[in-house]
Amino acid sequence: MIDFHSHIIYDIDDGSKSIEESLEMIENAKQEGSKYICATSHYMVGSYEPEREVYIEKLKSLREKVDGIEIAEGLEVYMEPSLPSLYKKEKIWGINKGKYMLIEFPMREVPKYSKDILYEMTVLNVTPIIAHPERNSRLRNDIKLLEEFIEEGYLLQMNASSLVGFHGDEVKTFAETLVKRNMIHMVGSDGHNVKRRNTNIKEGVLRIKELNPELYSWIKENQHNIFNGEDVQPLEIKEEVIKKKGLFSFLRGK
């Protein structure tokens, strides 16, 4: 399995604080069954703006010390109006030096300019991947917006931890809904450290297999295409099934 979202590059954002911690996180990823892990450090204007040279140097130092797992380049880019300009200046880059870019919204909103910026990125031959939409309260209350993103050709990345309740019942329930409706295209650990937010992925991936075997197979078959920057054709979004209570269930107080 490919872990498409992690913060294993040390001392560059709010993830790993040392090379020793990074190596522990990578070893844990191997134990979890990840064969590839994308080192998607934060890029947030005004907070975390890693220079590519520094990023590559630290990535290289990790690659030299590990085997049995491939560490790929990447960033988790925070949504803001200057993304097209930053990309043209080569300040931000995609996963594995390809066209797919992990983009994060604020946790409680989707800025009004987001649709325009995402479209501008596609004009630059970037395919946006929306990071952990299940954790965004605006998106949880407006699943139609996620449907629109998928229809525009964007992909959605889910945190494996969301499916096992790490972020609470509300996030877990919404994550399950997205899985059941084929509205997830890849999985990540979003690993930040060796304590509460490690590079765990196995349990969440197994949960996808339980909830939607067809989607699980699609992810396994297409994850390397995404990793290698190739086009993919997502599964059709399933209609939401709303269970209706019968008359007798109300009479029984159910």
Keywords:
single chain, 254 residues, alpha/beta, six-stranded parallel sheet, three-stranded parallel sheet, 10 helices, 9 strands, globular, disordered C terminus
Can you walk through the features of this model?
This protein is of the alpha/beta class. The protein is built from ten helices and nine strands. It has helices at 19-31, 52-63, 83-88, 114-123, 137-140, 143-151, 169-180, 202-211, 213-227, 247-251; strands spanning 2-6, 36-39, 41-43, 70-72, 75-78, 100-104, 127-131, 155-159, 186-188. The strands form two sheets. A six-stranded parallel beta sheet has the order 3-5-6-7-8-9. The protein has a three-stranded parallel beta sheet with strand order 1-2-4, with helices on both faces. α8 packs across α9. The protein is globular and about 50 Å long. It starts with a strand and ends with a helix.
Q: What's this model, at a glance?
A:
By secondary structure, the chain is α/β, with parallel strands linked by helices. It is built from ten helices and nine strands.
